[in-house]
Amino acid sequence: MTAAQLSLITTGALLGGLLLLGLSLQLGWRRNQARWPHHALFFAVCLGTGCSLMLTIHAGLQGWALAPALILLLTMPRTRPGSASHWQRAVLVALAYTVGAWISW
């Protein structure tokens, strides 16, 4: 397994955790305790997506396919938790990352 593939898998797992934690926040589960880990995971996913993009391009793969996911992450609306614009963007990020990782693999 190459470093690019390991980065793609790790970032995908972090993104899955971020989505699950966001869903738990949406449902009201331990809202005050889960908020800072959600933001920390968001930062880790942004960093991981950027690293994955660079590693896949460096490996000669089609890393450009991860650019839409990174753009969507960096333009995530900073709104009230649970708002439609926030969770809809999160779903788009997950779809863009999944397609981008599949193309880049």
Helix content: over 70%
Proportion in β-strands? under 5%
Distance between the termini: 11 Å
Let me know the largest β-sheet.
none
Q: Helices and strands, in N-to-C order?
A: HHHH
Extended strand count: 0
Radius of gyration: 14 Å
Shape: elongated
Mean pLDDT: 92
Oligomer: single chain
Low-confidence stretches: none
How many separate domains make up the residues? 1
Structural description of this entry:
Helices cover 77% and strands 0% of the residues. By secondary structure, it is mainly alpha-helical. The chain has one domain. Helix 1 runs antiparallel to helix 4, helix 2 runs antiparallel to helix 3 and helix 3 packs antiparallel against helix 4. The mean pLDDT is 92.
List key phrases describing it.
105 residues; mainly alpha; transmembrane; transmembrane helix
Give the secondary structure arrangement, pairings included:
Elements: H1 3-26, H2 31-58, H3 67-74, H4 84-104
Helix pairs in contact: 1-2, 1-4, 2-3, 3-4
Keywords: Membrane, Transmembrane, Transmembrane helix
Transmembrane segments: 6-29, 41-67
TL;DR?
Helices cover 77% and strands 0% of the residues. The protein is mainly alpha-helical and 105 residues long. It has one domain.
